[in-house]
Amino acid sequence: MKQIDFDQKYSPIWKSFEADIDNHNGRKAKLDPAFPENYRKICNHLSLARQRHYSEELIDYLNQLVMAGHHALYKQDNRIKLGYIGFALNVFIFTLRKYSKAVWLSTALFIMPGLLMGLACFYDETIIYSLMSPSDVAEFESMYDPSLDKIGRERGSDTDLMMFGYYIKNNIGIAFRTFAGGIFFGLGSVFFLCFNGLYIGAVAGRLTSIGYGVTFYPFVVGHGAFELTAIVFSGAAGLIIGYALINPGQQSRLTALKNAARDAVKIMYGAAFMLLIAAFLEAFWSSSTSLPVELKYAVGAGLWFFVIWLCFLSPLGRQREPN
Amino acid sequence: MTRPLIDTDCSVETPEGINFNSTIAGTVPRALAYVIDFSWRLLIYILLAIVSAFIGNVGWGFFLIFSFLLEWFYPVYFEVFRNGQTPGKKSMGIKVVNDDFTPVRWNTSIIRNLLRSADFFPVLYLFGIISITCSKKFQRLGDMAAGTLVIYAIEERKQEITSDVKPVLPAAPLTLDERQAIADFTDRTDVISEPRQIELTDILTPLTNSTGKSGLIKVLGIGAWIRGKKDKG
Predict the structure, then answer these.
(1) ipTM for the assembly
(2) pTM beyond 0.90, yes or no
(3) Which residues form the RDD domain (chain B) (predicted)?
């Protein structure tokens, strides 16, 4: 069949197919029930046109029709439904347990430098200046001074919401960067984990040594349950993609990376959600000074137990990954 | 054995058993798209900051939350809900798709945008640019992890073949390559000047037995015949 006959014979299908897709994309109309059938016909036409060496123009046109059809046919529903949250939680916990080695490694990379730095700063008051400038040290010291009536960042009560925004931007940003650093063969995640560990350890060690622990620990114990674990989980997610690049197993590095990223992002959903809770607690609960210290410790301990139980012991995520 | 030509075409085999092609966008259109998006975001930041300044601390709280969302999820929103195109990508005519050319989903879009900070590292997307330049499919690190591509979104409409040339049967049988060359030439006559057309068709004098304008008309006739034009006369 020559091109012109081919064109005349099939262009009604092409035209109606084109109109159908335009309608679908523009006015969100439902696709014609015959759409899949027409799409497959046009796929066939594209192959024929190529094989018969019809003009580039016609091949490009059919290629483009196929592309549009491919998009319409394989489009997935992106609307968020409430039920997805429970599903995401289940998948998050399942994935955490699947990669428990990465989680433990990440925990060690965070806690070991933190403990060492904490002890060092506790016993030697000069070491902290290797990590922070004197003005930074003076600033955080003043925040947790027990003689002040507001702890945390200095503020009046109307700034709680502002701090909520600040914690979201800052802490979730750190978690995302910790994850992203994993693509450099895990090195970025290792760096952020160690650095955050050192920093937090230094602050804790310093404040304990100068006797500000009485304000510092009640402040951090509550949101720390979510924040510190979420940072560790983000690091673990980064280590997962880093490990896929270092040891891709039977797959190509690129495929291994893609598969690992698909799992790692499930952890990131959970970590981001935990950081959201942490930011909320830090802004509205931890900062409150009217509550007795005992209550804060009790709630803090409860939250730690809850997080650890949820992530490692709860029946959630124990079944096979739901489909 | 010839080496395959280096080009920016990318071909995907679909479940229908055919290959279809798309052209992958390189560093420059992507960087320009980024600059456009960045300007939009900057504008929103400024507007938000002005509004927040009037509201006070509560306003700054919202400003910080919005700037967090803008920083990390501005591209995600557009990629998922606006057909893979942020405003910048739309004005550059490029779009994000999965590497099988299906539309991006939440997962893939979020992966590629979380890894943006790795691509940005150490300054001004240096790693991203190196990665785009060195990878076969122009992928930045986030694209590799998410399995996405940035392709040109071409919206080309079909043009009708309209010519009033009388089809001519070639005097001698032609090989496939020769038929292709002549047919492609006839398709492209609207972008080649007539003297050049004549110059080209003069090469075919052995086939057409004529030179100049009459040779050109004969070649165009053969082209029309190859495409299947029927002689109405």
Answers:
(1) 0.84
(2) no
(3) 25-147
